Amino acid sequence: xxxxxxxxxxxxxxxxxxxxxxxxxxxxxxxxxxxxxxxxxxxxxxxxxxxxxxxxxxxxxxxxxxxxxxxxxxxxxxxxxxxxxxxxxxxxxxxxxxxxxxxxxxxxxxxxxxxxxxxxxxxxxxxxxxxxxxxxxxxxxxxxxxxxxxxxxxxxxxxxxxxxxxxxxxxxxxxxxxxxxxxxxxxxxxxxxxxxxxxxxxxxxxxxxxxxxxxxxxxxxxxxxxxxxxxxxxxxxxxxxxxxxxxxxx
Length: 250
Prior knowledge:
Blueprint: E1 2-6, H1 13-26, E2 30-36, H2 43-47, H3 65-70, E3 86-89, E4 92-96, H4 109-121, E5 128-134, H5 139-142, E6 151-156, H6 160-175, E7 180-187, H7 190-197, E8 205-210, H8 213-221, H9 232-249
Parallel strand pairs: 1-5, 1-6, 2-4, 2-5, 6-7, 7-8
Antiparallel strand pairs: 3-4
Helix pairs in contact: 1-9
């Protein structure tokens, strides 16, 4: 199953990706985490893994990505990933598509083009998951990154901007015929939860993640996330159930 996690900047996408990846991997599944945020510099530390070499360099770097992406083979498996461009820890693998390093080097469009093609051609086994952490907003929809995934998870924090973006993602999800679900994050109390639920399609909500000081402290310190957080197991249960159902249909 290929899962894409999106949302507005600062809503907690990388936190959800980290916690969910660790939970699914702990159940004996192999999980590939894709860092598709060109400005995110902390996902690897939250996973407790070294930062991998940018995958775009495997194809010659950002300047030639558009052409090289067209030359990619028709199918990849996790075992095909070049070892020099992934880091591993138990059942977890981390692949970083690419980053912006220098002033004036250009936009992240080639990186998103690589992500779109890679997600489309990656073939996963029965006990394999992919979880992609995206850049903020919806630019990745413009590059077609979503067309290769099975499910979209939108992280919503307690802000009007986050609610409006979730509605837009749902609209775009319908355009590519992909299911969209919501994760309410950093919910401090019942009043906040009620306000959020009254502002969105509550039938899409699969988990409510409470505000967590331990996450805040670990994130600020740049240390690995090892905490048990309410709501994450429920998300993993749902994803495993949907994966098993899809395998039976096939």
